[in-house]
Amino acid sequence: MALINVQAVTLGLKHYCPVLLIQLQKLHSSSVNLAWNNFRTPSRFLKYNEKVYPPQSSGEEPRPAFVCHQRTNIKYSPWKMWYVACLVRGMPVDEAIRQLKFVEKKGAKDVREVLEEAKELARKEHNVEFPSNMWVAESFVGKGQVIKGIRRHARARHGIVEYFHCHYFARLEEGKPPKHYYLPYPKQPHEQLEEWLEEMRKRKIYDSL
Amino acid sequence: MAVTAVTFLKRINITIQRFEQFINFTFRGKYPPDAFCLVGSEADRLPQSPSKFSVKDILGDGFLWAVPKSRRSIEKRLKRKFGHPDYILKIMKPKTNLRTCKVCGDDHEAGVLCPTCYNRVIDETKAMQDAIQAELKLEPVEKEVIVLYDGEKGEKPDETFEGKRIVEMKKQRPTWFSKNLLQQTTQNPSTNTDIKPSDLG
């Protein structure tokens, strides 16, 4: 099913509107890399899961376990999903799942499911004993497939309607989350003092003995 | 000179009159044929050929092609993206009014009955109502209706159910549904007469 050629109102001028896609199917057998036929999903993020790190020496701090998980082509706008992804950053997983239950957005459901799946994956495949002892280290969104349609306006005009999809990526790390996810964070007075003292001590009198 | 002008005018008048007479004589009360009819003002009222489509129809109405006049400043962009705490904040903050239900363990907002527990009560109520409707159907309710679960009928003597209509539910009583709903408290009233200092005077 697919192509419907929509002819514009012929008022003396004959011009054809762009093709209206109803369902996406592979139309060509040849290697044509059209945007709307491109069904590749992002795979690089999941490759971080397969990376094998060299064994650590006894003195080194233990590297925390992590899980990368994603969900592709969620029917939601990436710009709206970004707000949900930002909420969850730097939170412990259970707290994140709990908060997402009360977020009234369509994307919140998918983000919640991704986090729950990631916990399960960590337990089964990544040798994490307590999945609840994890926090959301990375949470971001990518633009997915865009399906374009046409709508009519008055006076022989047309508008293009875009149906957006998004990919959601999450990385869970084992351990307690840091106090501040973003830098720079608002500092306490004693921290400010420490910083000021450091700056003062860094100064150098040039060409002195 | 004047004489020739006058005679000239007279001659014109005469020719016009003769022309009119000729017409009257020829058509004598009848309408003249199409060829002789004048197509006067009618022609002006005929519909013109349908106006051809021109680009002016779309552009010429003062239709302005919407285009940004100047670059959006970073402040405007950030305000759009994040909002402002004093107006509408677009970025989401975690909610601090979430509580855990001590009965079922699910979360709910503070000041709200736990939805899972409440839904459980709703479902049970609906089941009771369905059982009552199935039993009574369209009869008027003249007696008090009592709903009993499995095995409860035998517990009390039949005299307690006199004057009451019994509806039996074919299932076990839920553990959270107490039989004793009418007794306010099981504690005896206190006989202690000591008063706390804050309650004095």
In short, what is this structure?
The complex is a heterodimer of chains A (209) and B (201). Chain A is 29% helix and 23% strand.
Keywords:
A: 209 residues, alpha+beta, Ribosomal Protein L22, Chain A, 3-stranded antiparallel sheet, two-stranded antiparallel sheet, B: 201 residues, two-stranded parallel sheet, 5 helices, 4 strands, Ribosomal_bL32 (chain B), Mitoribosomal_protein_bL32 (chain B)
What can you tell me about this protein's structure?
The complex is a heterodimer of chains A (about 210) and B (about 200). The longest helix of chain A has 20 residues. The N terminus of chain A is likely disordered. In chain A, a hairpin with a 5-residue loop joins strand 4 and strand 5. The radius of gyration of chain A is 26 Å and the shape is extended. Chain A folds into two domains: about 35 residues; about 120 residues, Ribosomal protein L22/L17 (Ribosomal Protein L22, Chain A, Alpha-Beta Complex). Chain A has five helices and five strands, in the order E-E-H-E-H-H-H-E-E-H. Chain B is mostly helical. Chain B is about 35% helix and about 10% strand. In chain B, the strands form two sheets. Chain B has a two-stranded antiparallel ribbon. Chain B has a two-stranded parallel sheet with strand order 3-4. In chain B, a hairpin with a 6-residue loop joins strand 1 and strand 2. Classes of the chains: A alpha+beta (about 210), B mainly alpha (about 200). Chains A and B meet through helix 2 and helix 3 of A and loops of B.
Tell me what portion of residues of chain B adopts beta-strand conformation.
5-15%
Please compute the radius of gyration of chain A using only Cα atoms.
Answer: 26 Å
Instruction: Give the amount of beta strand of chain A, in percent.
Output: 15-25%
- From the N-terminal CA to the C-terminal CA of chain A, the straight-line distance is 85 Å
Q: Could you give the order of strands across the largest sheet of chain A?
A: 3-5-4
Number of E-state strands of chain A: 5
Q: What's the shape of chain B?
A: elongated
> How many strands, what sense, and barrel or not for the largest sheet of chain A?
3 strands, antiparallel
List the helices and strands of chain B in order: HHHHEEHEE
Radius of gyration of chain B: 51 Å
Overall SS class of chain B = mainly alpha
